[in-house]
Write a structure and sequence with these properties.
Distance between the termini: 29 Å
GO molecular function: phosphorelay response regulator activity; transcription cis-regulatory region binding
Helix content: 40-55%
Protein name: Response regulator transcription factor
Strand order of the largest sheet: 2-1-3-4-5
Shape: elongated
Oligomer: single chain
Pfam families: Response_reg, Trans_reg_C
GO cellular component, one term: cytosol
Keywords: DNA-binding, Phosphoprotein, Transcription, Transcription regulation, Two-component regulatory system
Number of strands: 11
Largest sheet: 5 strands, parallel
Length: about 220
């Protein structure tokens, strides 16, 4: 699994990073709340491990912003605060699980594994839909508000990625890897060019813009 670890204590962060890496997980980490929020929004992760008390922005504030922004990745919150009220606050803000420090690494790993299983898809979807756009993956057909939209193969794949993450930002790097299988930056405007063509086709007939672009963050298909 790809895991985001947000923990400001260097010893704890390095210990958990090493342990999860030895179990075969891909770990990206942040040592303050601002970096954690940025990574959670711009990177595709399976589970987020979030420390409650962090500098710049605390874990509870991060969690509330993520849920308000449509980020649905399961969150395991770490805290030194053991009161029932603190745990309730975290769960009500959108945390999926809670672990009190100090903790055994084996328990942390087991809880992460359980969260990953909880969100694993039961079967591959053959149809995707969001924001008035419908895609049939088997028939290779796309419709917006019931009207057929003819797309080239790369445009189809771009839209598929946006639909799979509707309401969430998808970064340029993610699109290069998933649509073109590039694991490097080709230093061209290949993503921007194809995205422009896709947007024009989806918006034909003066429909509202289906795709939101935020410089330095990525692209988001409007979910509604």
């Amino acid at each position: 699994m790809r895991i985001l670890l947000a923990e400001d204590d260097d010893d704890t962060r390095h210990f958990v990073e090493r342990g999860l890496g030895e179990l075969g997980h891909n770990v990206i980490s942040a040592e303050n709340g601002e970096d954690a929020l940025h990574l959670a929004v711009t990177e595709a992760v399976d589970v987020i491990v979030l420390d409650r008390m962090m500098p710049v922005l605390d874990g509870l504030s991060i969690l509330k912003r993520l849920r308000a922004g449509g980020v649905a990745a399961p969150v395991l919150m770490l805290t030194a605060l053991g009161r029932i009220e603190d745990r309730v606050d975290g769960l009500e803000a959108g945390a999926d699980d809670y672990l009190i420090k100090p903790f055994a690494f084996s328990e942390l790993a087991a809880r992460i594994q359980a969260l990953g299983r909880r969100t694993a898809p039961a079967a591959a979807a053959t149809k995707l839909a969001a924001g008035g756009i419908e895609m049939d993956l088997l028939a290779r057909e796309v419709r917006r508000e019931g009207k057929a939209v003819l797309l080239q193969p790369r445009e189809f794949r771009l839209l598929e990625e946006l639909l799979r993450h509707a309401g969430e930002f998808v970064t340029r790097t993610m699109l290069l890897e998933r649509v073109w299988d590039f694991h490097f930056d080709p230093q061209t405007k290949i993503v921007e060019t194809h995205m422009s063509r896709l947007r024009a086709k989806l918006n034909e007939g003066h429909l509202p813009d289906a795709i939101e672009t935020v410089r330095g963050v990525g692209y988001r298909l409007r979910a509604a």
